[in-house]
Amino acid sequence: MRVLIAEDEVYLAEAVQTVLERHAMAVDVVHDGDAALEAIAVNDYDVVLLDRDLPGTHGDDVCASVAAAGDGPGILMLTAAGRTRDKVDGFELGADDYLAKPFEFPELIARLRSLARRPRQARPPVTLCGDLRYDPFRREVYRDGRYVKLTRKEFAVLGVLLAADGGVVSAERLLEKAWDENADPFTNSVRVTISNLRRRLGEPWLIHTVPGSGYRIAAEAGS
C-alpha cells in the first residue's frame, strides 16, 4: 500500500510515517496543500492521509480537487475538530473517511487498510456548457462563477438536459427521468420546473423551448 501523508505538524507526520512504514506501507510526506496536489498528480497513491488545515492550498480544496478528478486515491481526512458538522462537511467535500485528532495508531492503521481495500469508483465527470458548471458528484451548479442553489428536482432536470448534449428532450422524457413512476403525465410540473430552473440560472437563457417538441439546453443564447 502506498500512502501520502499531508500534514503540517512535522513531528506528527514523522511519527505517523514511522508507524506506517513498520506496517510495510510505502509512505511519502508533504507539509502543505500545494505540495500535496503536486504529489498526487504524479504518483499513484492508494490513500491520502489529509490534514484539513493545511497551509497553502487548504485541505478542503485539496480534497475537493481529488474528488472532482475522479478515480483517485481514497482520502482519510484528519482534523482537530470532531464535531458532527465538521465530519459532514468533510464527506460532502469528497472525503472517504474522517479521523479526529488525537487518534490511536491501531485505529488509523485499520481505517487506512479498509480504504485501500475499497474498489476505486470513477466519480461522474463535471459537465460544462458555456459558463455553466454542473457537478453531479458534489451536487453543485455554478453560472459564470456564481453558485446556483437548485432544488433536487431542478438539479435532476438540468442533468437530463445536459446529458442530451444539445438535443431536444420532451416533457414526457423529463417526467420519466426526473420524477417517480407515480407522476401524473398530465401535470404541468415539468413546465413549472423548467420555468423556475431557467429563472435561477439567469440570463442569457440557456434552456430553450422547442414548440411542440420539448426543451434543449444550449450555451449560445438564441441557438
Outline the fold blueprint.
Blueprint: E1 2-6, H1 10-22, E2 26-30, H2 33-42, E3 47-51, H3 59-69, E4 74-79, H4 84-93, E5 97-100, H5 105-117, E6 127-129, E7 132-135, E8 140-143, E9 146-147, H6 152-163, H7 171-178, H8 189-201, E10 207-210, E11 214-217
Parallel strand pairs: 1-2, 1-3, 3-4, 4-5
Antiparallel strand pairs: 6-7, 7-8, 8-9, 10-11
Helix pairs in contact: 2-3, 6-8
Spans of 5+ residues with little confidence (pLDDT < 50)? none
What amount of the residues lies in strands? 15-25%
Largest sheet: 5 strands, parallel
Number of helices: 8
By CATH's scheme, which homologous superfamily of the largest domain applies? Response regulator
* Physical arrangement of strands within the biggest beta sheet: 2-1-3-4-5
Using the coordinates above, name the CATH class of the largest domain: Alpha Beta
Look at the structure and give the mean pLDDT.
85
What name is given to the CATH topology of the largest domain?
Rossmann fold
Q: If you compute it from the alpha carbons, what radius of gyration comes out, rounded to the nearest whole angstrom?
A: 22 Å
Helix-strand topology string: EHEHEHEHEHEEEEHHHEE
Class by alpha and beta content: alpha/beta
End-to-end span in angstroms?
51 Å
CATH architecture of the largest domain: 3-Layer(aba) Sandwich
Oligomer: single chain
- Proportion of helical residues: 40-55%
